[in-house]
Amino acid sequence: MRTDGISRFAAIWAGQLVSIAGTGITGFVLGVWVFQLTGSATRFGLIMLLEAVAAIAVAPVAGMVVDRVDRRAVLVVSDIVAAGATGVLLALVAGGHLQVWHVYPIAVVTAMCATFRMVAFTTMLPLLVPEQHLGRANGLAQTLPAVQIAAPLAAGGLLAAVGLRGVVLIDLCTYVVALAITVVVGLPERAVRPDRAGQVGESTWAELTGGWRELRRRPGLLHVMLLLGGFHLAAGMAGVLVQPLILTFAGPSTLGVLMFVGGAGMFAGSAVMTAWGGPARRMTGVRTFLAVAGIALALHSLAPSALLIGVLAPAFLFTLPIITGSAMSLLQSKVDPAALGRVMAGARMTAQGGTALGFAAAGPLADLIFEPMLAPGGALAGSIGTVIGTGDGRGIALIFAITGITLIALAVWATTSPALRTVDDLPDLLTTNTDEGLADARPAAG
């Protein structure tokens, strides 16, 4: 078997990895800055909420564009625009003019660019690697979000060494690296140029909704999307609150270490998925690791302990690449390649939609409801408080317990639903990559 397609995929992946690492470091530093300046979980969560809403809004357009135009060009333009937004941030920091509200529009622009980039990347992925290695490639792709989680440890050292301006400058340089790799690496025509068969003459609305029509045509795939949405709703609530939870009993340096440990767990999950490729029946991987994730998440609520979080966070994050990689491989292999960009956009939209709901609910639920209820003398202090404790962060801990139970319930649904149990039996529509198809590679977009 030729490995040309795999090596080209790995090169593009490496460029995106460098870029995402820089962005993750900058995002961590800015997030801590906003939280420490305002003391508000809601304002902290607003950054992630706006990123999610921006991604949802632009996802249908990204899918249509990726199924219409040169996908390499989409990667290049996305990185250029995101680099421009980072340049504005650098100018604000260098001039001493950065304010909290500046963070939000910059986050929106970079989130939109990330959506175009990831839709193009995940659409190209199954067209670059042989189908038998699709699960492994999706496992490797899951290291991209892992880098964002692990970035805080590097952020602490970089912040001390070069300051906020230096961190943002490094982020800007990572875009240059990603752009250089994207332009130089030769890519096969099949992966770069969309198959427009069946799309010519379609209205813009028909193209925007083509991914959802494709999913309705394949029984069970819409259920997979709903499952992903529920998973990201629960995980999003936990994700936006884990840093405020840790900061209630530890400082930023401990937070950075714990975030790194969590990211290491996600890296380990990606490594396992890359080596293993997931189970032959991909829904088995999804439902099994949903249950494991739910248990690990619920146990976060037991005590305000750095050691507890240091064990459970990597255990929870270990499951994410296997859940997401298995689900993405399932979608990529069961839909028409001509609609793949729009289906991938739909998957991102569903995931970000669940995440946005989680982000929107998490801060107000923590600040206005659960934290007061688990304060000393609060409504739940004499009941649930006797189990998980009372005081700062214990209301957030209760949210972790609820989200964990939600993931376990999703695993039960995935096990008992006939549509989800049989979705692996749908015929594959992804044409296996051939040596001839992989041999046709161009060094730059034409």
Q: What is the CATH-assigned architecture?
A: Up-down Bundle
* Average of per-residue pLDDT values: 84
Number of strands: 2
Radius of gyration computed on alpha carbons: 21 Å
**H and E string:** HHHHHHEHHHHHHHHHHHHE
Globular, elongated, flat, extended or rod-shaped: what is the shape? globular
Any idea of the CATH topology? Growth Hormone, Chain: A
Low-confidence parts, pLDDT < 50 over ≥5 residues? Answer: 432-446
The number of domains is 1
Describe it for me?
The protein is mainly α. It has one domain (4-195, 206-429): Up-down Bundle (Growth Hormone, Chain: A), CATH 1.20.1250.20. The protein is built from 18 helices and two strands. It has helices at residues 4-38, 41-66, 71-94, 100-128, 134-141, 143-184, 189-192, 204-208, 210-217, 221-247, 252-276, 282-299, 306-334, 340-373, 385-388, 394-416, 418-421, 435-439; strands at 187-188, 441-442. The chain has a two-stranded antiparallel sheet with strand order 1-2. The longest helix is centred in the middle third of the chain and has 42 residues, at 143-184. It is globular. The two termini are 28 Å apart. One of its GO terms (cellular component) is plasma membrane. Its main location: membrane. It is a multi-pass membrane protein.
